[in-house]
């Protein structure tokens, strides 16, 4: 059994940064000692580097099986490990088959053998055709489910309507899992917008109203659920529109189990700075104006937004239409899985955030949301020995060559950032050191009811 210790003058424990020595036995944190405590095992001193809980990214599209030319478990989880992510949750679409039945979920589980560099949970999906299959899917171990209120871009994953949501909510409430919603409603009136190489033309085609109306609908349905005694957990993924923040705040004040996330691209990029014809910046909902971005940061500060996740949504370079600059035809999705903490820390430290805040937003709260907080998200006795060792002062430029996910493209190439992951440990296994991978994949599936 593994038995070793890590120490640093800066360890994040119980919402504080303090000197500490962490003793690890097997997969778990065995004890937390004073920095100068003597233990009868090998000890690694990381000096002033910050030892943080491994990040938990609850929004990742891995696309395997079926679309591994877009991404796969081996490359995605390597990128995660390089970025200090020790657990992620895979989305139910873009893979073939989509994860909407127990049988499809088993196909996905069969595809992960010997490919996981970090631990991995899974979301299922709700589509109009699978309401009767939800009990079996949830009993099989998915951590929750996701739906789209708008065309997902994947024929096998059609959007739901209010009647489908009403049918699904009591089942999800019984299992006490979150219902993740891609919250855009095509309200019409913008379908005649001509999308050309101008980024603003794409922005105009997906207005804030689409998000605002979708979120208002979900609040109404959440109220219905609460009134019926279910109070289903509703979660808004990748929030982009600042105009929906008040609606979310009101839902929380009413006692609805209503949460929302946003992503690094909405917090670190403004539409005014996106060059025309640069399809790598296309995502849905879109990256909006700088003032909108500032309002999202304010919502992170005051708690209207609960946490930050990547929404890593890769595809092949051909599907991005990089050469033609055709924004309309390009697949919508941002690839940046391994750079999240550096991107967020670069912006956040200028706004008065500290690394305890970042750990809460990218680890503790995401673990809690996904139902993984009994083993992930904090450095505490009994939890998995998941750590990221972080140099908060290192500066580097993101390049295509350093990318670990399947295709070395990202809208962040050329961007200077501060803060660099030095080491990643998953359940006590040292999996990544200064961008180099150690040994073999040791990640495990994380299944509800089997944690």
UniProtKB/TrEMBL annotation:
Subunit structure: Homotetramer.
MF (Gene Ontology): allantoinase activity; cobalt ion binding; zinc ion binding
Organism: Thalassotalea piscium
Name by which UniProt lists this protein: allantoinase
Gene Ontology biological-process entries: allantoin catabolic process; purine nucleobase catabolic process
Residues annotated as domain Amidohydrolase-related: 50-429
Necessary cofactors: Zn(2+)
Pathway: Nitrogen metabolism; (S)-allantoin degradation; allantoate from (S)-allantoin: step 1/1
EC number: 3.5.2.5
Keywords: Hydrolase, Metal-binding, Zinc
Class of enzymatic activity (EC top level): hydrolase
Superkingdom as given in the UniProt entry: Bacteria
PROSITE patterns in alphabetical order: DIHYDROOROTASE_1, TATD_1
UniProt cross-references to SUPFAM superfamilies, sorted A to Z: Composite domain of metallo-dependent hydrolases (SSF51338), Metallo-dependent hydrolases (SSF51556)
Gene Ontology cellular component terms for the protein in this record: cytoplasm
Family: Belongs to the metallo-dependent hydrolases superfamily. Allantoinase family.
Primary role: Catalyzes the reversible cyclization of carbamoyl aspartate to dihydroorotate.
């Amino acid at each position: 059994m593994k038995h070793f210790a890590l120490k640093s003058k800066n360890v994040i424990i119980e919402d504080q940064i303090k000197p500490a020595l962490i003793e690890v036995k097997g997969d778990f944190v065995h004890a937390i000692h004073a920095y100068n405590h003597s233990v009868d095992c090998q000890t690694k001193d990381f000096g002033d580097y910050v030892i943080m809980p491994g990040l938990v990214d609850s929004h990742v599209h891995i696309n395997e099986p079926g679309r591994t030319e877009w991404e796969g478990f081996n490359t995605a989880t390597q990128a995660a490990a390089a970025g200090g992510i020790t657990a992620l949750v895979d989305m139910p679409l873009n893979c073939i088959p989509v994860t909407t039945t127990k049988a499809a979920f088993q196909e996905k589980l069969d595809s992960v053998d010997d490919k996981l560099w970090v631990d991995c949970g899974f979301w299922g999906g709700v589509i109009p055709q699978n309401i009767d299959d939800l009990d079996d899917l949830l009993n099989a171990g998915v951590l929750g489910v996701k739906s789209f209120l708008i065309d997902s871009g994947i024929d096998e994953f059609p959007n739901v309507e209010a009647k489908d949501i009403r049918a699904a909510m009591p089942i999800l409430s019984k299992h006490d899992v979150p219902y993740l919603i891609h919250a855009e409603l095509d309200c019409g009136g913008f379908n005649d917008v001509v999308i050309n190489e101008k980024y603003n033309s794409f922005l105009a085609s997906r207005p804030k109203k689409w998000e605002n109306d979708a979120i208002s609908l979900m609040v109404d349905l959440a109220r219905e659920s609460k009134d019926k005694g279910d109070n289903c957990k509703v979660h808004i993924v990748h929030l982009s529109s600042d105009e929906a923040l008040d609606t979310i705040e009101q839902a929380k004040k009413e006692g609805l189990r209503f949460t929302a996330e946003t992503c690094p691209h909405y917090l670190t990029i403004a539409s005014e700075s996106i060059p025309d014809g640069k399809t790598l910046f296309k995502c849905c909902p879109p990256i909006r104006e700088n003032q909108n971005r500032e309002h999202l940061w304010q919502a992170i500060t005051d708690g209207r937004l609960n946490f930050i996740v990547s929404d890593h949504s890769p595809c092949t370079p051909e599907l991005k239409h990089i050469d033609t600059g055709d924004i309309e035809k390009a697949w919508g999705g941002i690839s940046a899985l391994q750079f999240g903490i550096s991107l967020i820390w670069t912006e956040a430290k200028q706004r008065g955030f500290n690394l305890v805040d970042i750990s809460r937003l990218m680890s503790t709260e995401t673990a809690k949301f996904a139902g993984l907080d009994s083993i992930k998200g904090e450095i505490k006795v009994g939890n998995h020995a998941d750590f990221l060792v972080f140099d908060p002062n290192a500066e580097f430029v993101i390049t295509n060559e350093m990318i670990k996910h399947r295709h070395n493209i990202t809208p962040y190439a050329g961007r200077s950032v501060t803060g660099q992951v030095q080491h990643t440990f998953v359940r006590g296994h040292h999996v990544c050191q200064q961008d180099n991978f150690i040994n073999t994949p040791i990640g495990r599936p994380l299944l509800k009811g089997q944690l």
